[in-house]
Amino acid sequence: MGQLLSHPLTEKTIEYNEYKNNQASTGIVPRFYNCVGSMQGYRLTQEDAHLIRNENSVVYVRFFNPFIDKYETLSLNVFAVFDGHGGDDCSKFLSGGLHHRDGNGSSNGNGEPNAGLIKWIAYSFENHHYTSTTNNDSSKFKRSFNTLEGLVSQIFKDAFILQDEELYRHFANSSCGSTAVVACIINEESLYVANCGDSRCILSSKSNGIKTMSFDHKPQHIGELIRINDNGGTVSLGRVGGVLALSRAFSDFQFKRGVTYPHRRTKLTNITQNLTYGTPPQEAQVTVEPDVLMHKIDYSKDEFLVLACDGIWDIYNNKQLIHFIKYHLVSGTKLDTIITKLLDHGIAQANSNTGVGFDNMTAIIVVLNRKGETLQDWFNKMKTRLERERGLV
Description:
Layout lengths: L11 E6 L2 H7 L7 E6 L8 E6 L5 E7 L4 E16 L3 H7 L21 H10 L3 E3 L10 E3 L2 H24 L5 E2 L1 E7 L3 E7 L3 E6 L3 E4 L9 H9 L4 E2 L2 E2 L9 E2 L13 E4 L2 E4 L16 E6 L5 E7 L1 H4 L4 H13 L4 H14 L12 E7 L7 H15 L4
Parallel strand pairs: 6-7
Antiparallel strand pairs: 1-2, 2-20, 3-5, 4-5, 5-8, 5-9, 8-15, 9-10, 10-18, 11-12, 11-19, 13-14, 16-17, 19-20
Helix pairs in contact: 3-4, 7-8
């Protein structure tokens, strides 16, 4: 496969976000430096997309916290990978790069900062109707929670469902769909990862610690299989209906027949009816409801995040990918070069018998630097730490 490495389809797009201009203009050291790399590979089209809302594009929301009974402003640093299938329409829509389309799915607008999934995440934080179990008057709320973490996790689930409802208005008759893995750091303290599909997020920590922040949704997994069968679907050859190798995704409305979303209305003979019957979106054969995992960031131990589509995970398992990145950090390699090497190594593993290495590939590395810690400080810290862990010093 070596002769194919110069093929145009293997050209890489690298975005290295060092935020040097921000630091120069404000004198403030940026948080969460990051680098994203993508490659079309040997697929006919590039169907991956990504989203980064960090530094000057951080999302601020006004959130009512029922556990302290007052409003507070939350900062949301958001990183996401969307792995599309059946075209790139859905993944680009989620990223905010394709926010407005006509009924036939034709583009008639350009991306805008608050389009796509980020719009619904912000909306769900600012308009939730949840309270705490300690509230004596909980009758006017939809649901009460024992913990703030549980409430915030539900907010992310609401955002995914609202986004899918919007997608239905544009892609109801389309076969496109997309996975999503979203890492959101709230107030630079709490990490929430919402996952729908088989893209993945992992956290690297001190002393070779690796924490899985998402779990793949495959049709043959027992919980997914039960839901699919209960909704009248079947799984064959590891695929829903013998077609889709995922059990959770945005769009893919051919597997969501009869699903009624919270705000969907339909016109029948000039009468607008609210659809109160049908299958809840959480119970569809292919549901959009994500799993949400939370982690309290410990800057003395936690090092970096990796988000990537399944094209990357076909090549590397969690441990291999973390070790690959750390191996190059020890040698002083910068993030953009590490991402480039990661993609090059992936495409070099292409195997026509298994199909491994032929998918689109997208990965994001997010640096969990302390407040006031520059990117070079973080590199020096990681190099020293890794040399000690390996007994090199």
